[in-house]
Every structure is written in C-alpha cells, then in structure tokens.
Amino acid sequence: MPHQPTVSEETEFEGLPRRLLDQDAVLIGRVTGDGKFAGLAAYYIHGQGSILIGHYESQELKPEYTIECESRLMSACVREFSTADVETELSTVGKALLQAWHFGDLTPLSHKQAHVYALREKAEFSRDETAAILNISPSTVDTHLQRAKEKLTAAENLVQFVYVDADELAEVHPDFFDEAGVSDEASSSSDITPLS
C-alpha cells in the first residue's frame, strides 16, 4: 500500500492544509494576481529555513520555486515572501509571524519570544498548535510566552514611569527623591556655563 502523506485538518485558502507533517512544512501564504506564479502555495520548511512555492496536490507540496532567507527565522522568511515581486496573501500563521517580525524589531522581545507571543496572544493559537507551527516543545512555548509577557510588562511599566509627573510621584511616594539621591537643589542647579 502506498504511503499516504499526513496533513493537518486545519485549512486555509479553500483547502490548503496549515501544516504538511511529512514535509515538515507550515503554510505561510499563497501567490495571488495574474502572473505565472498565481495560485501557488507558499510553505516554510523547517530544517531548511526557506520557503518553497509550488502546487499542492495529492496531499503534498510539489515545489517549483524557493525563497532563500538570509535568516532562518520563520518571521524573517515570511517578511521576505510578503515583500517579493509578486502579489501575495498571507495565511493566519503568516500574518502572525509578520507581526512577530515587527515585535522583534520594536520591542525588547527576542524574535523567538515574539514568534510565540504573536501566535499565542495575537492570533490566539493553542499552546500545542503554536508548538507544532514553530517546531518546538509545548514547554518551550510556555517559557517563551512567560518571558515575553514579563519583558512587555517591564517595558510598559518603564514607559508609564517616564510619563509620571514629578509632583505626582512625590505625592504617591514622598521618599522617592531621597532614595534616588535627588534633591531639590540638584534640580535647580546653576552650574551651566555659557560658551564664550
């Protein structure tokens, strides 16, 4: 009996499976428009760190083209696919990973933490589905998510602190300036000398 490829039950784009288990592939999008690439599926291939583009038939991706990624990060590959010279449409995973790319660049999160955070918190994938998409263990998902939340909370607290008015801070915590070694005299120093 011939081998029957294993695919995930979750589908997008009128029947493309989210994951091709035998090919260790995750659907990140498809090519749209009218060109010769139109209708081709785009899957990120774990272990290769690249995106293969081709026809999906008989429960397998028949690759015809590739997008080589400078970085093996899934989010970096999704970004390269989304900025390719063809019209593209991202899958749910692709959209979350593109958001993760921006999180990794604009927040204190590592890209791996950003991947988990985007998939779990923004796209609302389950713990096990996130692990399967990223090809990591569920406990690693938990660890990355916990650290991501801690970093984002710390960053949010810092931003809130920066925008606190000094008088409000003194009212809430009167000893703050004493503890920080800041005195009223230091804030009104006239040690600035004009340049001649």
Automatic annotation (TrEMBL):
<dbReference type="InterPro" id="IPR036388">
    <property type="entry name" value="WH-like_DNA-bd_sf"/>
</dbReference>
<dbReference type="InterPro" id="IPR013249">
    <property type="entry name" value="RNA_pol_sigma70_r4_t2"/>
</dbReference>
<dbReference type="GO" id="GO:0006352">
    <property type="term" value="P:DNA-templated transcription initiation"/>
</dbReference>
<dbReference type="Pfam" id="PF08281">
    <property type="entry name" value="Sigma70_r4_2"/>
</dbReference>
<dbReference type="GO" id="GO:0016987">
    <property type="term" value="F:sigma factor activity"/>
</dbReference>
<feature type="domain" description="RNA polymerase sigma factor 70 region 4 type 2">
    <location>
        <begin position="109"/>
        <end position="152"/>
    </location>
</feature>
<protein>
    <submittedName>
        <fullName>Sigma-70, region 4</fullName>
    </submittedName>
</protein>
<dbReference type="GO" id="GO:0003677">
    <property type="term" value="F:DNA binding"/>
</dbReference>
<dbReference type="InterPro" id="IPR013324">
    <property type="entry name" value="RNA_pol_sigma_r3/r4-like"/>
</dbReference>
